[in-house]
Amino acid sequence: MKILLDTLAEADLADCHALFVDAVHALGRRHYRPEQCAAWAPPGAMPDAWRDGWARRLARAWGVKALADDGRLAGFAWLLFDGEFDMLYVAPWAAGRGVGSRLVGALLYEGRRAGLAALTVYASHGARPLFERAGFVVERDHLAWRDGVALENWIMRASLAEPGRAAR
Ligand SMILES: CC(C)(COP(=O)(O)OP(=O)(O)OC[C@H]1O[C@@H](n2cnc3c(N)ncnc32)[C@H](O)[C@@H]1OP(=O)(O)O)[C@@H](O)C(=O)NCCC(=O)NCCS
């Protein structure tokens, strides 16, 4: 199956939310307990407050989506203009084929082109190896609190100033 990358738009956010819930509950569960997955991505329709919050964040970010040749959304990601990698999710049926790495690579290109010196990410356990391959290094561990539930993740950083440190 061919996967193509395209610009992510606000109109894609409802599909992104459905993919996000699927990804967390099918892939995130390899590293997080069910109650952690439920707090991270509450199942069900996208609440209006989330829609508004995601739209506001995407408006100040480079966003990219991965589409299969049959039109299905295979993944999405966005990088805030201030250099924080805010979103990275891949559909369970598309996982493990390099889609996440391609999304990260496309956004690294945007960050570098805009002249950012460094990027940061709060990486999940599952995403840490992918970000390491892309040139990010772990600064420290971190706890993100969602609905009173703690989720362990990793604060990682990539320097774009040194050529070759962060892979395209
Ligand atoms: C983390 C996540 C985005 C990774 O997406 P992905 O598309 O599966 O990522 P990749 O395919 O690029 O890499 C995943 C694995 O596939 C393997 N892989 C990469 N390219 C491949 C290819 N062309 N063929 C076969 N396998 C491949 C890699 O070895 C990698 O293994 P590792 O990371 O365990 O070392 C996805 O699992 C996800 O959405 N998880 C739930 C939510 C989450 O944790 N999001 C990140 C928040 S920071």
TrEMBL record:
Q: Where is the N-acetyltransferase domain?
A: 3-161
Tell me the classification of the organism that encodes this protein.
Bacteria, Pseudomonadati, Pseudomonadota, Betaproteobacteria, Neisseriales
Highest taxon listed in the record's lineage = Bacteria
The record, for Gene3D superfamilies, names: 3.40.630.30
- Keyword Transferase set for record: yes
A single MF term (Gene Ontology): acyltransferase activity, transferring groups other than amino-acyl groups
Keyword Magnesium among UniProt keywords: no
Mind telling me which PANTHER family this protein's record contains? Answer: ACETYLTRANSFERASE (PTHR43451:SF1), ACETYLTRANSFERASE (GNAT) FAMILY PROTEIN (PTHR43451)
| Name of the protein | GCN5 family acetyltransferase
**Which keywords are on file for this protein?**
Transferase
Q: Which InterPro entries match?
A: Acyl_CoA_acyltransferase (IPR016181), GNAT_dom (IPR000182), N-acetyltrans/Recomb-assoc (IPR052564)
Q: Which PROSITE patterns match?
A: GNAT (PS51186)
**Organism encoding this protein:** Crenobacter luteus
